[in-house]
Structures are given as C-alpha cells and as structure tokens.
Write a structure and sequence with these properties.
This protein is mainly alpha-helical. Strands 1-2 form a two-stranded parallel ribbon.
Length: 109
C-alpha cells in the first residue's frame, strides 16, 4: 500500500484524492436507498434467502439465530419473525441495547 504525504503537494489535488472516493461511495449508498424503498416484485425478495440463512445456522449447530438489518419496506417485523421461527424456533430480532449471552461449546471427546 502506497503511503501518501498529505502535507506536500497541491492542496486541491490532495483534497480531491480524499473526497472523491467518499463522494462515489455516497452516490452508491443513495442508489441503494432508492432501490431499497421501491416496491420490488416478490421474485427479488423471496423467502429463500431467509431459508438459506436458517439452514446454514442449523448446519453450523447454532442454538439461536439473530436477524437484523431490515429493509425499510418492512413496517411490521413480527410476521417475519414468526415465519423464521417455523423453520428455526430460536430466532430473535436483533434490537438496540438487547444483549445475548454466547456460551462456548466444549467438544466432548
């Protein structure tokens, strides 16, 4: 990785070198937000993605599954939680300031 001395050289060039990547990132974030708030057809928001996550949790031997980072399209999370619990009963919605205890499993040999 190249180290750049930010105290030597054209100030405009140095500012742009820092600001341009941030601006491009913000543009992509805004595009994501616009797409996320659109009503997309159900084929793009299928429950198979949730099913896969629950299957992976079961295969990994997880005892609890925390779900979070929901689209703004979901006004009510309870139906989603109930749907997940049909497949993985120990599913919880990750909420602010909520804590979960994670115990280390010991292999029995």
């Amino acid at each position: 990785m190249k180290v750049r001395n930010m105290t030597v050289g054209s100030p405009i060039r140095l500012i742009l070198a820092v600001a341009l990547p941030l601006m491009v990132g913000n543009i992509f974030q805004q595009l994501y937000t616009v797409v996320d708030t659109m009503e997309l057809p159900s084929k793009y928001t299928t429950p198979e993605a949730w099913d896969l996550n629950m299957l992976l949790a079961k295969m990994a031997g997880a005892e609890k599954l925390l779900i979070g980072h929901f689209s703004s399209r979901y006004k009510e999370l309870e139906p989603l939680l109930q749907e997940c619990r049909e497949i993985f009963p120990e599913t919880y919605i990750a909420e602010e300031k909520q804590t979960f205890t994670i115990l280390e499993k010991r292999n029995k040999e």
